[in-house]
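Worked example 4.2. Below are the chains of a multi-component assembly; read each line carefully before continuing.
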Amino acid sequence: MNAIANLANLTDERLLIEAAQHDPGRFAELYESNFHRVYAFVARRTADREEAQDVTAEVFHQALRNIGRFQWRGVPFAAWLLRIAANTLADRWQRAARNVEVPSEGPMEDLAAAGVTDTEVERRTMLFQLVDRLPADQRLVIMRRFVDQRSVRDIAQELGRSEGAIKQLQFRALETLRSQARNHHE
Amino acid sequence: MNNFSVYDELDQAIDQMLAAPANASAVRDSSDRESNVDELLDLASDLRHLPRNNFKMRLKLELEWAAAGRTVSAADTDAQTQLAREAKPVAAGGQILTNLFGKSWSGYPVRRVNFVASVAMHAVMLLLMGAGLVMVKSIVPRVEPQLGVSSRLEPYIAPIGIHESHGGGSGGANDKPRASVGAAPPAAREQLTPPVVLRNNQQPRLTAEATVIAPPDLNVVRARQIGDPLSDIAALSNGPGVGGGIGGRAGDGVDGGEGPGRGNNKGAGCCDGIYPFGNGVSMPRAIYAPEPEFSDEARKSKYQGEVTLLATIGADGRPKNLTVVRSLGMGLDEKALETVRTWRFDPAKKDGHPVAVQMNIIVNFHLF
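Applying the procedure described above to all two chains together yields the following structure tokens:
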């Protein structure tokens, strides 16, 4: 059944790619389905969130510019995007190497096989997608706590709730994410 | 362990992990915690790499713009990136029109030139709307009816046979018999010598033609003997009146009236002392003629029409003997009379001399 489902997904993706090649306005659908994967891949290999966001944006802009040259070979579109991401990161590191001595070995080693992502990237991709589906209050607490890195006290003041309530929301959000991640794997 | 302690324990662990990211694994692997909390900490560790809120949406919009062939300027992108880095939650209303000043990064990519164009277009539209309102206001007639009064003068033509002569003239020398018959004396504007049938002084030192005050162009039959044309007494007599004329009453005139004129009433002139139009008698001209006001009753009833007044415009330019010839009612007649009495005229003239005439004064009360 999984093979059939994957085949159907690939067919759908191919149609989306062809649509985007004829009308770049349709690229948004490819973007939606691949954003978290590309971001997780990039974030795994960058120092901070801001750099990860910059690289992610660059990857998708390049993909949009070059979507016409994409040739379907039965490989997921994400593989093409991750190859662009790997090249972009490599370019950045090379530019940085001109100014700062960096070790020749590093995350680049596994980028040659872009399109084949490690389990950590897969886990984060799924996790980031699940965050988007959290209830609004739980999602807000997660974003404030882990993205903005604010204290529970600050969040409680902002939302006009007790610290205990914020801690509870934080706990429930993480439990929800864990539960949905397990379901996703099963 | 109750739930509150689990919440606190998890929160403390997260605090440690966020404070020292390098030691996150050590925090996660602490053996002092429940396994449940450890699993949640694993998730929390990955959540540290979440993209910022709205980054996904902003990038999508940028791509949509790029796909549509519209480029977002580098300055805008840099500003948005900077804002993304500085992004902190802002309470609603904390900033005003951030998009207008190109400082928003959470919505559409900002192109300031679009704001300028939008403001310019709105300004032009407002100007056009304002100009339109002014134009409409200036050309739309007022719906509310306006009151107006106008007046005009028309010469009065006395119907033949209806009005009798109103001139006055009489006199006499206190004789017993009535005045003898004879032709009327000639008319003149001034009377130097009253007409008499029998003269007491047969040899006056200064002689002047006996006249009555009447329009000079009054046609009279020239005859050798003057007297009262209406008398049937042949014997010469000045009449039983007094004052030196011919007749039975007082004055220097002729006939049964009083005064230096001729006729059965009082005063100078022929008939009623009023010059008829024509034969060189000019029209009087109003030099002070305020318009009458509407009466309250007529204004409320929106009543309109014309009031015709008959007036004698004296040689002194004042209207006299005002009478209403055609009435309108609702207090408008009184308003017309009241106002026309105050009018002043440049009187009618005959041979350059002011003379009295009769005029119709038509006052038109109307609604616009």
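Take a moment to check your reading of the output against the notes. Residues 148-157+276-367 of chain B form a domain with the TolA/TonB C-terminal domain fold (CATH 3.30.2420.10). The first helix of chain B runs from residue 3 to 19.
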